[in-house]
């Protein structure tokens, strides 16, 4: 029956892939037609299960993202189309179908890669030319699939040399080479220069008529001797040549020198058209994260490499729009003139609908996916040295391991017995600490394996008398009660689930490797323990459970550490992520910020803006305040950052805690409440709504006085009063002349509410927890550093405005108007329809983690929701002291030993 099912699935898939949107009836008709063949015969229940599987697979869709180009761009691709034989693309398209990409996704990928190819230069155009562009994707969303498709189409169009710069670690470069072998070359490059016959892989199984030349292989980076040993002159290439190299100054230098030695003519350049793909373009190509000298060397070598070619295209791929390409130069003029700046085009990729991404993890379903780490300090503190001794595992990590085992048992029940299944543990940047963690996890896993082997086969009533089986059942009850199976069935599968799991250390010094390809027939089950090697680019196949204990606040670093993003077919409900609550807060904030920039890119496309204008927009985004300051931390100087506050939300999540400041801020709130309005005071004329008391049409002067009177903490960067007041004052005669003011109050409370009537109205104070970083002089509002409650930005809007904001959001996300039951509307959508800014004054009941009140009187904080500006964005200057940033915002720099080891 198993063989019959596999035959039936393959036969039906071969037909469905030709359809863009197969209906449920079409799927079932195909299944029933093929079931009549003996080798495809299955029972009705199996056929229906397969039909539902195809419905999910082929219900996946993908939209075309936004695109910006320079204004004098001249299209060329359509005119050349008749001359192009899509040999490489056709092979790759067949491979995507074999990998179960839906017809919709393949069609959209075809469209998107056509758009990007058209933004490159025509490879048959004579004379010297160069193009610079960027493609902005999502972490683990399929950027490699996109640029592999682009490589295939570029080769079809006539590009002869293709260079892929694939990250700064050997394991990532090797993994990328394997993907290029599979999707473009068609042969196992590991046999390069060996006496073994070719082994055809991926696209090579469909057609071997044409064979690209590869100068690197899946086990060894570029070397002059290996490249020369290929023995094919660059000037006589009949088929395209591909190099997949590590982003390393020595490798780049070797490649540059080898190319120069093999160039021809007096100019010592190469005439063949060249495409350079810079994967993770924000990492090391520009970034100063890993040391100024190394980065400048890499940047310089990439630029020199491009100059070696008379005709070249550079395309940087990144998942972080905050890439330092946009924000690192000190002036806007420097940004415009920067050689690697994507001045010709920027393309934003939209992920397929089945993408398990940051929006879902941190904004839409955080409560079901995220688990907080609160017990690590006695076992593995966030701040520790490379000499730290690991003597045990935090209970939360043991829980995460058990969750992984139970999740794998459920996957076996779902028929995933031949699928990869991975767990990630990223808890230290030091390789020696990672080694100890690996050993401790191995010991704990061995104990669980032994317990399951001995007691797992007993009847549940007997097995549950043993602590480890009882602990695993407790995990099932807590995490997976709605996973579609009962405990006795899970218990029966525990041994098969836990027995194959192994623990691998993954860093520059480890001998273990995540060789998923070696387990293609059986599936690899692994707990991967590592640091930076696991943080950027490396794909963990079948990743189900993640344990993330890091304190980086660098935006691109945090997002790239999110290896848990990706595709989780038929097991996304089993995925869990453990992290500190502070980290969840930062992730949620960054997710909102990046999504806001993507929306800006979409709106700028409609306005026919240029890449340069988008670059300036990124540099003017409020979050560049922290990103730029952290980039410059090594200088120990003050940094001036010019930003705009239109369409943004700012709040005082960090407060002064001394008695004088707390009293002064309460007085500032009371003074604002007593300001005269036409028919009384501001507070007495307010209207009670769901979120508190609101007064509309408040003069801007009252707002400026309140901000001036409020005692600001320097850690609350965006609410620095001077630039904030300058921004408001610049618009006080127009867009910001009238304000809505909300005194926040909750409608219900527990048995011990903190009540306040100092404003002339009865306030039930919002309860907030003092963050763990708080001390006697500084109060952090919750570990997530959030003051306002979700949904509060709609305060003051009419029902019609709220409905319109939601409609616009659904339209942007392609959500049908009758499919709104599970839509989680973000607050930012209300700024689109707001025509007055909103000041929210918070009176907070501050408690400790034991829920005990720590201040007898309310603590005052505030938030401001600025609407989108219709005027030219006039940015204001913020001055940041990088020494203060370094002291107060922890940096998660790399272990120098780890980096040095991987650069040999």
Corresponding CATH architecture of the largest domain: 3-Layer(aba) Sandwich
Tell me, what's the shape? globular
How are the strands of the biggest sheet laid out side by side?
Answer: 1-8-2-7-6-3-5-4
| C-alpha termini separation | 52 Å
What number of structural domains do the residues give?
Answer: 4
CATH topology of the largest domain: Rossmann fold
Regions with little confidence, pLDDT below 50 for 5+ residues: 286-292, 894-904
Quaternary organization: single chain
Rg estimate, integer Å: 29 Å
Count of DSSP helices?
30
Strand content: 15-25%
Could you name the CATH class of the largest domain? Alpha Beta
Q: What is the averaged pLDDT score?
A: 87
**What portion of residues is helical?**
25-40%
Keywords:
Rossmann fold, 30 helices, globular, 904 residues, 7-stranded mixed β-sheet, 8-stranded mixed β-sheet, single chain, 4 domains, alpha/beta
Overall description:
By secondary structure, the chain is of the alpha/beta class. The protein has four domains: 2-58; 84-348, P-loop containing nucleotide triphosphate hydrolases (Rossmann fold), CATH 3.40.50; 357-587, no CATH class; 645-797 and 834-874, no CATH class. 38% of the residues lie in helices and 16% in strands. It contains 30 helices and 31 strands. An eight-stranded mixed beta sheet has the order 1-8-2-7-6-3-5-4, sandwiched between helices. Strands 18, 22, 23, 24, 27, 29 and 30 form a seven-stranded mixed beta sheet that branches. Helix 1 (2-16) crosses helix 2 (24-35). The chain is globular, with a radius of gyration of 29 Å. The two termini are 52 Å apart. The model is unreliable at 286-292 and 894-904 (pLDDT under 50).
